[in-house]
Known about the structure:
Layout: E1 20-25, E2 38-42, E3 51-56, E4 59-66, E5 88-89, H1 98-110, H2 115-121, H3 125-129, H4 132-149, H5 154-157, H6 168-179, E6 184-188, H7 194-208, E7 213-217, H8 224-239, E8 244-247, H9 253-265, E9 270-273, E10 285-291, H10 308-318, E11 322-327, H11 332-337, E12 352-356, E13 367-372, H12 384-395, E14 399-403, E15 412-415, E16 432-434, E17 439-441, E18 448-450, E19 463-466, H13 470-480, E20 494-497, H14 507-516, E21 522-525, E22 538-543, H15 557-569, H16 576-581, E23 588-593, H17 599-605, H18 609-623, E24 630-638, H19 641-657, E25 666-668, E26 672-679, E27 682-691, H20 694-712, E28 718-725
Parallel strand pairs: 6-11, 6-12, 7-9, 7-10, 8-9, 10-11, 13-23, 14-21, 14-22, 20-21, 22-23
Antiparallel strand pairs: 1-2, 1-4, 3-4, 3-5, 15-19, 16-17, 17-18, 24-27, 24-28, 25-27, 26-27
Bound molecules: adenosine-5'-triphosphate and zinc ion.
Adenosine-5'-triphosphate binds next to helix 7.
EC number: 5.6.2.4
Pfam family, one: Zn_ribbon_PriA
Cofactor: Zn(2+)
Amino acid sequence: MSTASVNDSSLPPVTKPASHWLWVAVSTPAHSSVSEPLSYLSDAPIAPGTLVRVPLGRREVLGVVWDAPPDGAVPDLPEGVTPRSIAGVLQGVAPLDASWRRLTAFTARYYQRALGEVALAALPPQLRDLTPEQMARRIQRKTRKKKDMAGVASAAIHPTPAPVALSDEQRRATLQIEAEDGPFLLFGATGSGKTEVYLHSVQRALEADPRAQVLVMVPEINLTPQLEARFLERFAPVYGDEAVVSMHSGMTSAQRLKSWLAAHTGEARIVLGTRMAVFASMPQLALIVVDEEHDASYKQQEGARYSARDLAVWRGREQQAKVILGSATPSLESWHASRSPSTDDPHGGRYLRLHMPSRIGAAELPRVRLVDMGQQPRGAVFSPPLLQAITERVERGEQCLVLLNRRGFAPVLHCKDCGWKSDCPHCSAHQVFHKIDRTLRCHHCGFTQRVPHACPSCGNVDISPLGRGTEQLEEQLAELLRNVITPQRRAARVARIDADTTKAKGALEEQLAAVHSGEIDVLVGTQMVAKGHDFRRITLVAAVQPDGALFSSDFRAPERLFALLMQAAGRAGRDADYIAEQGGNPPEMWIQTWHPEHSLYTSLRRHDYPRFAAEQLQERADAGMPPFAYQALVRADARTQEAAQAFLTAVSERAREAQLPGLDHVFLFPPVPMAVQRVANVERAQMLIESAHRGALQHFLAAWQSVLHAERANHKAVIRWLVDVDPQAI
Ligand SMILES: Nc1ncnc2c1ncn2[C@@H]1O[C@H](COP(=O)(O)OP(=O)(O)OP(=O)(O)O)[C@@H](O)[C@H]1O
Ligand SMILES: [Zn+2]
């Protein structure tokens, strides 16, 4: 029996023949059909959850010892396969507990991925790369530092902040959270002080049990520093700086490992993070908060395509932790799940809805003004009344936010003579014109070229931009406001925040600081600036071209548009005292539209999310769409569209031939090209699978996995396939 090479001299030499079977989750290469833990031998029994190094092919990799299968202790190895021994144990790291193993196992099962892949991806990358000695040194250093710090009372460093007096609505919400089990949907207007409710509930959870841990999730990395500051201010004086850690992909591997270990050992009482944090090992988890729960960023878009929000609810139930989902514009799924009981629906939803309709202080929600673009001068980007309103605000020293969800200067360049357009040679998409460095860039594959001097097709030198993006908007607005003077007797300043201006580390923080300090008068930006930020001096928000999403083929587009506009409106007029100082001009949200009569805008004008949601849910119920049905997508990528579709057709035929379980309750749509059909020279097709029953869909998908793997061998032109359960974009 061969023992794989162990490069850790601190491990005891193997003297007795290894005699205990272990099931170890390891990350097998993508698309191998191995989805269960692999079996290894060990000379001693090892507890499930223990981190081990094991040989895999010619490599040695990290693995997690898994629970033995119920059906016996001796694996059924294929003929000719010699069992191998584990290489070593990662000393000093306590085993991952059963609830963490159940969470990752559920994720793998539900999202149709291999267990090892999910389990290993849920661990900090450094854990995979460090040798056992390096790991031991890390842990030693940490414990030494902790001892040195032991005598220092953190309260001496941080003064205890004065307690905040909760508003009536906040108090009512916090009392209900204490009294009931949840899960809770905290439906609170923008600026209603949801964060304070989270802070209060966190405090209660930590006080109730000296070991309790809480997990707080936000959708975007750029919202974590803000949140971290508030949590540190509140909790560091009581529990010390080390009690609050962050977890997101913007951190270095070393930082991530440090946070992960702190959560795993229980030293961290509060973990703040993005979607990945849902997998943090937190043995004493008592509360999970998901802020802006409607946000699409909670859905992972590669590997296991999990929804961190849905997993948070699952995890909360499993680990008996309370769960608070918070939003001013909940996802329709969560809204529906929190409906109250009625005569034909005596049980109602499984979440408890908590309502906070008022803003903090005397602050009011902005007035929504719809500008009918059909009545405005032709070709105007900014309608005269909007421009006038922005000018007046700036002249009074107030700030404005202009929203356009498209970056670059223009979405496409074109030639009026021959009709040439700046198409990406590798994708079925236009290359976007970026004036700042005179490039054409594909936002799908990244392909970048210099702007041609003349039309590549007919030689005409007069090629021009078509449509507009944030870069052009910023330029035009600066031009339009060039003679506007602020109360500080300086010219108005226009700045832009989008993915292009914030690539450098720290750039976003710097730009936001300039807005907060009042250096910027008008901020042009994408959805990046529309949510979460607590701007104090913005009194006008304008959406200049929001109509596109009204007619999208994606049934979730109106939901996303409504949320985006309502969140953007939520950035205006958050500080009642400031508005009063300025003379009491009410804050405003301007919408330039060609469809002012559209029902979505009617709801928006009334800040009436429930009306909007009721309409959308009625449409979805009539059409049998989520949340009244459950969906999955199978996508195939191939060299040609025919090959991609042929694979999808074949796998649905195989499913029918095999009469797979669940098939009776599942509808398989025919394959279609994806909305952006070709990216980086790869053709993409997808197929929708729908069922009225989540269980039937799950059964079917589980049985289908082996069919997909097997059929793949017959389709050499297929590059990859993947399954997306509960897809967010269709
Ligand atoms: N009870 C309170 N007393 C005084 N100020 C408060 C109170 N609660 C919250 N605030 C302040 O009100 C402002 C808005 O609160 P917060 O940012 O939590 O709103 P929100 O509900 O999260 O809004 P959004 O959904 O727009 O992010 C913040 O500046 C916060 O400090
Ligand atoms: Zn491209």
